[in-house]
Amino acid sequence: xxxxxxxxxxxxxxxxxxxxxxxxxxxxxxxxxxxxxxxxxxxxxxxxxxxxxxxxxxxxxxxxxxxxxxxxxxxxxxxxxxxxxxxxxxxxxxxxxxxxxxxxxxxxxxxxxxxxxxxxxxxxxxxxxxxxxxxxxxxxxxxxxxxxxxxxxxxxxxxxxxxxxxxxxxxxxxxxxxxxxxxxxxxxxxxxxxxxxxxxxxxxxxxxxxxxxxxxxxxxxxxxxxxxxxxxxxxxxxxxxxxxxxxxxxxxxxxxxxxxxxxxxxxxxxxxxxxxxxxxxxxxxxxxxxxxxxxxxxxxxxxxxxxxxxxxxxxxxxxxxxxxxxxxxxxxxxxxxxxxxxxxxxxxxxxxxxxxxxxxxxxxxxxxxxxxxxxxxxxxxxxxxxxxxxxxxxxxxxxxxxxxxxxxxxxxxxxx
Amino acid sequence: xxxxxxxxxxxxxxxxxxxxxxxxxxxxxxxxxxxxxxxxxxxxxxxxxxxxxxxxxxxxxxxxxxxxxxxxxxxxxxxxxxxxxxxxxxxxxxxxxxxxxxxxxxxxxxxxxxxxxxxxxxxxxxxxxxxxxxxxxxxxxxxxxxxxxxxxxxxxxxxxxxxxxxxxxxxxxxxxxxxxxxxxxxxxxxxxxxxxxxxxxxxxxxxxxxxxxxxxxxxxxxxxxxxxxxxxxxxxxxxxxxxxxxxxxxxxxxxxxxxxxxxxxxxxxxxxxxxxxxxxxxxxxxxxxxxxxxxxxxxxxxxxxxxxxxxxxxxxxxxxxxxxxxxxxxxxxxxxxxxxxxxxxxxxxxxxxxxxxxxxxxxxxxxxxxxxxxxxxxxxxxxxxxxxxxxxxxxxxxxxxxxxxxxxxxxxxxxxxxxxxxxxxxxxxxxxxxxxxxxxxxxxxxxxxxxxxxxxxxxxxxxxxxxxxxxxxx
Amino acid sequence: xxxxxxxxxxxxxxxxxxxxxxxxxxxxxxxxxxxxxxxxxxxxxxxxxxxxxxxxxxxxxxxxxxxxxxxxxxxxxxxxxxxxxxxxxxxxxxxxxxxxxxxxxxxxxxxxxxxxxxxxxxxxxxxxxxxxxxxxxxxxxxxxxxxxxxxxxxxxxxxxxxxxxxxxxxxxxxxxxxxxxxxxxxxxxxxxxxxxxxxxxxxxxxxxxxxxxxxxxxxxxxxxxxxxxxxxxxxxxxxxxxxxxxxxxxxxxxxxxxxxxxxxxxxxxxxxxxxxxxxxxxxxxxxxxxxxxxxxxxxxxxxxxxxxxxxxxxxxxxxxxxxxxxxxxxxxxxxxxxxxxxxxxxxxxxxxxxxxxxxxx
Lengths: 416, 474, 361
Fold this sequence. Notes:
The complex is a heterotrimer. By secondary structure, chain A is an alpha/beta fold. Chain A has helices at residues 2-13, 15-32, 88-99, 115-119, 122-131, 148-161, 166-177, 184-192, 259-269, 345-369, 376-383, 385-393; strands spanning 41-51, 59-66, 78-85, 102-104, 110-114, 140-144, 197-202, 204-206, 217-218, 228-229, 234-235, 238-240, 245-249, 252-257, 276-282, 290-308, 311-328, 406-415. In chain A, strands 1, 2, 3, 4, 5, 6, 7, 10, 13 and 14 form a 10-stranded mixed sheet that branches. Chain A has a 4-stranded mixed sheet with strand order 15-16-17-18, sandwiched between helices. A two-stranded antiparallel ribbon of chain A has the order 8-12. Chain B has 3 domains: 6-109, no CATH class; 138-263, no CATH class; 266-426, no CATH class. Chain B has 16 helices and 12 strands. Chain B is elongated. Helix content of chain B is 43%, strand content 13%. By secondary structure, chain C is mainly alpha-helical. Chain C has a single domain (8-360), classed as Amino acid/polyamine transporter I (Up-down Bundle). Chains in contact: A-B, A-C, B-C. Chain A binds chain B through residues 14, 16, 23-24, 26-28, 30-39, 41, 43, 45, 66, 68-72, 76, 104, 106-107, 109, 134, and chain B through 213-215, 293, 296-301, 305, 308-309, 311-317, 321-324, 367, 371, 400, 403-404, 406-408, 412.
């Protein structure tokens, strides 16, 4: 008893001993047996959503998961896991069951959705993924015409071979084709915004192995049923990236745009990162009946809005910096001004006309589909909310406001 | 007239010294007087005794009295002493001279030790700059300090500590610079020490601080006279201890550990960069393993996919849990370190090879440990030695943070850091905050803080602790 | 332990942390739901009220440089009023502690700790917060002073990086004044903590011109709050209501930063640091108030009381975000009356009584 009292006295005199004992006992016991989270979670890098075969209500989830292998080299091994369920969250649970790990969505980079969903309302199926805080809203969304599971299988082959990765393709598209990211966030921003419109990237899967990135995915037989599966069907498919995009309104696809259409729309959005303009049958002092191709290496847009007689007018100044990259003419002979730095007035006029036409065509696409991707509504509303409200009320169909806005386009061409 | 029985006196003193074999007594029987000498031969200079003391007295012709003896003795350090000081002086290497015709006694210091030369201390090597280091002899150490201060401003106060060892302690400070309060407090604390003996300056450390049980060093120390001199110039007080090459300085701030003598003998921009590197080294050493463990156990989602893949692949076959793995590797490193300290140099190479092979190669190949864990622990252990004086503290804290990171994750690591900082902020000695000049933030002192300003710009003494005169240069 | 005094910079940094920490997590999203982009005005109104409180404090401090607030209350209003007021203040800070703990627990659990329970958080938070509450105020002040540059750098990083991710404009002028005022009232809970200055009154060294430093640091905090709010609204515009954790989400909008992966962990770190420091201040205020109400009881009693009731309530109370917000919107605005009505009233009464005394003399 006396000894115990002595020890207690030492402890109270030196609290550091107490702290050390407390720390080691509490924290040590917790930490000694704890296993790494990496071994408890399946690392998912891509998710695919399809409508389940032979079922109207069910949804099929495909998960592209990374498989850790004890090795010293740098090759990565991936696997596609499929599962069905009545909802996306249920399907993900079943997928976890089949692999014996919890599904970790923190590293998901791509969300692939079958085009069928965009014919109804894709946002319904994406609801779970938006609510899950682990999934970053900067996850790229890709629409595909084939089954999402086949797409992921093609992606798996790409990743395993260490060749061109799907991330690179998507990043390239985001930067140079759409000039915008097609992510969950942008999709929902468009959906909940006044325009209710968004752009979603589209990458097809082609049966034709001559086109696109030649990769084949050939695995074992698939399994049906309300469960998770680790095999996939035999197929030879290639990823075909042609710069397509789908235009969505209220979560539904309204238009399928090719890369040319995107270029026209990008002029209006003022985010033109890559492209070329061609003028046919051009003649001036230097060229005669030539076909000239100009590369656009920079473009700026400035929109000034005003209301005149209750009609909104958008004055769009487009400044484009171009450089001649190709001239096709029979017996072309240029002795000076080889780079065509001093562009002739005819060339400038021709380019301006061409750009104006392109912008008009882009605008027509948006008007036809009532998709205000260029967000002119916000510009007008912030300029004069009352006038905007008045203008909208004066329309028969408020959602068709784009057709009633006057756009005055003034392109200005500068050579390099 | 006989005032003192010389033989009896010698017998008494020899008895007090337990008739130790190194006690030497000599008696000269002169015409009118008997002269007695007693000293310890083990650490006195016999040559000086014979030539400067014994011979002149024995060869004297005439009436010998006390004053005459004082003049005859040709040694420098001669003083009159009283009865109570006889034993002390003999024990300190003096020869005591007494006459039968006088009650007065004389002590002549003929102390002689074999000491080593002031070589570069192994704990503070420099690339450029002085390489002298303190030795175990306090007189040499005082000499090394004196030759750096050719002014009367340097004050040296002599004290004695230790009932058995009666170790000489010297307090050194600059009279016009150091705070009188600090000097007084140091003196008071040293005088209040009641201890058997002081073998090394480290024994004094707990008595000089208010929280002796703390893990953290609260008294500065150095083996180099140039460092101690610069600290004296800043207004600190130095404490030299006989038989110890380590000189203590107070007040102490943690910033001193970040500073290195090399910083002042090289370009200031480079020196500033090195300080940042040291700070990063400290962070890596303290938190590196903890963060690695926390990320693995709780926050795998934070890791980018590429690193995750590497770690997942590497840790697949490891039988241990991550915490045990890191502990195991840390323990191996620590064992290697201990072995390398104590091993004879001819075995050092073999041990390094065995250690590197076991840890670096075989262990990984056998699947006992993973390469990322080895890298993390290796970096942490190497980074520990950016500030070698704090390696003990950082090692303990490393374990503490490892434990917290493994059990609670990032939240615990940050909480632990806050606790550590709050604790360090509560340490204060001689009215000097431990984390000055960072906390409290003293702008002027930061010229020699994380960055080092050029010497021309360091015009003032530190404000982190009190001193009398802040101006150094115009 | 008797607290030593802190200098004005340390007091200002406490103020910065208290003003800033509450308002960068769930509040922006809630204000957007109530008043769209005009939720910004809710901040401005509430900040004006807080500046009013700070001004009152400076005024009081100048008049009574060595007095503590409890001494003033005791002398002017009597001992019973003193006890009542301090019980209310203790209750105020206790409620705020519960709210902060719940919000941050849910935040951490949602984002970085998926499977861990309450116990893990409590074992981590409580000892540190308790230590901060009982350690000397000067040590605490120096600690926050040391963390301040780290906090500032991280905040600057967050703000600058988040503005990179902005690519759209929200719609302005969608809400009217009534929406703004109603939303402000609903969320007054997040404001008013600056009354801690009154509790630390006698421990703050105040010289001439120090008022400007307090205003500077509080304005800096308010500016940062507004910048983060703006970054959040401009980043997410119409989807702001979908993102409950503002400071985390504005960094999440910036994709894969230089190969370092998701940088939103930076937001998590800053929230962790601020949580500890903020809870430390609140608990210290609680302890001080407890000590005034029960002067003979030491800090150990205050902490034991707090820890016991806290542990009971934390296990019984809300543990999901929606219910926490409901608790914050429905119940806690009433306690804000303590900071926005009671304390200013006391201060005005002190000044009036003094003036009357002077007038009579």
